[in-house]
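Module 6 notes. Inverse folding takes a fixed backbone as the condition and produces residue identities as the prediction. Think of it as a translation problem where the source language is geometry and the target language is the twenty amino acids. Below is one complete input and output pair. Work through it position by position during the lab.
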């Protein structure tokens, strides 16, 4: 007998069985009940397999389309790159979701496309921040020199919104080239992180502390003397800034304490700020706007 093609619901049940905490949510929680409802809505439209979902994706209503992109990404469905790239350009409503999914795929064609978009936007007299946001998502897990340069340039650009520059700082932390102190890339990142500690935007301040810690992490193998110019400002933040980090549950002062310990020890604390404040429900406000 020919092998039966698994339905979306079959895949949903299998995925829940092996991954009980999809995106950090319990498998019996509201998030996954919402998934089941979306799959039921797709089934009612006659869409029961990944191939059918991929074909129908561009014509679906906005919420179902958003779910479809996520579901095709989670299930690692084949043939998604071309469809996601078309939606990236054609449908701003799912642009960021497509960018994240494409970034996780990190295929050469997609990397080149995001580098091209980022370079064009950064060269424009009026960069489109929504496109640059998508570029950050699309290049976040990529270590090519061209991708790294685009991300770092967004982080450097003081004419761009603080939340966008903060997102670029976040993405820099994934780059394996960040700790090579012989490079111009390292020197640019260090200079921007140092000035970012005094930025007017809390997002830039917060992610600059994170970048600083990533730059200084060395496993106690070498001196961190070059980072000492940042210590006075970090100690000031550690002593006075009680604001909660943007989007997170720990305060700026604790992030600063972690960065100080990384600079002083090369490794950082065994229990970091996120863990020390685990269970805290308050979150710092985010200023992300289009």
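Target side of the pair, the amino acids:
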């Amino acid at each position: 007998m020919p092998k039966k093609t698994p339905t979306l619901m079959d895949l949903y049940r299998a995925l829940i069985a092996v991954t009980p905490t999809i995106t950090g949510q319990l498998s019996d929680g509201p998030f996954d009940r919402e998934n089941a409802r979306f799959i039921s809505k797709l089934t009612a439209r006659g869409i029961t397999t990944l191939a059918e979902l991929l074909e129908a994706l561009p014509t679906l209503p906005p919420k179902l389309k958003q779910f479809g992109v996520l579901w095709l990404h989670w299930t690692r469905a084949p043939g998604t790159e071309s469809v996601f790239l078309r939606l990236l350009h054609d449908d701003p409503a799912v642009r960021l979701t497509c960018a994240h999914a494409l970034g996780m795929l990190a295929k050469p064609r997609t990397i080149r496309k995001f580098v091209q978009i980022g370079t064009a936007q950064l060269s424009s007299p009026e960069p489109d921040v929504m496109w640059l946001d998508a570029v950050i998502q699309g290049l976040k897990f990529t270590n090519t020199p061209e991708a790294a340069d685009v991300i770092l340039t967004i982080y450097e650009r003081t004419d761009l919104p603080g939340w966008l520059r903060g997102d670029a700082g976040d993405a820099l932390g994934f780059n394996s080239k960040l700790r090579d102190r012989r490079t111009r890339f390292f020197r640019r990142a260090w200079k921007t992180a140092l000035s970012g500690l005094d930025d007017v935007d809390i997002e830039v301040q917060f992610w600059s502390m994170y970048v600083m810690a990533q730059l200084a992490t060395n496993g106690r193998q070498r001196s961190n003397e070059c980072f000492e110019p940042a210590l006075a400002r970090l100690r000031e933040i550690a002593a006075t800034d009680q604001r909660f980090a943007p989007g997170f549950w720990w305060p700026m002062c604790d992030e600063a304490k972690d960065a100080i310990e990384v600079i002083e020890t090369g490794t950082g604390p065994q229990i970091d700020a996120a863990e020390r404040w685990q269970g805290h429900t308050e979150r710092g406000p985010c200023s992300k706007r289009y």
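Reference fact for the lab report: The longest helix spans residues 108-123.
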